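Job type: complex structure
Entries:
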Amino acid sequence: DAGVTQSPTHLIKTRGQQVTLRCSPKSGHDTVSWYQQALGQGPQFIFQYYEEEERQRGNFPDRFSGHQFPNYSSELNVNALLLGDSALYLCASSLAAGVADTQYFGPGTRLTVL
Amino acid sequence: AQSVTQLDSQVPVFEEAPVELRCNYSSSVSVYLFWYVQYPNQGLQLLLKYLSGSTLVESINGFEAEFNKSQTSFHLRKPSVHISDTAEYFCAVSDSTGTALIFGKGTTLSVSS
């Protein structure tokens, strides 16, 4: 049973560029959440997708956008990159049915903005 | 709004010693509480969670945490740690919708021989 997978593993971009990160949820899961983990900090919730719609959003600017596909996989897009966007981006999947259902995390994508 | 405070950023202990990682939360509504562990260069793994019922919850690898509503705490304990327990530990609370997780800043547990 494959867990949550993310690609790429590492990414280096320069300020002002755009980036797309990808996530495939755990088998059987239909909900995908994205988190940003800055160095030395806990993860911060960016947004959650369910049924191809953004279900809830954290305190992140519109430069951060996402998409969920019919197969439940998801993308996180960040436009006009800033140095402060350098972080580990974590994807988590869960079942939408349960409140506070366990979220299973992928290994993350390490984004470095120069 | 919910928030989580992990009171210790680093906890160094010797192998086979007991350990407690402290977590306090702030919330005006009923909460669900979680402990996640992050090994180097890996994603987060759920260690244990409290949703309702018994205030003492246990994990399969010997950790336990107790939900204390009056003290708004959810401390993580293990009676005897192993070298392999060395990792970053995050306490988290679900938001009022039960959708997003709100994490503390983490506690680095370093177990040495």
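Summary: Chain A touches chain B at residues 4, 33, 35, 40-45, 48, 55-56, 58, 90, 92, 99-100, 102-108 (CB under 8 Å). The longest strand of chain A covers residues 87-94.
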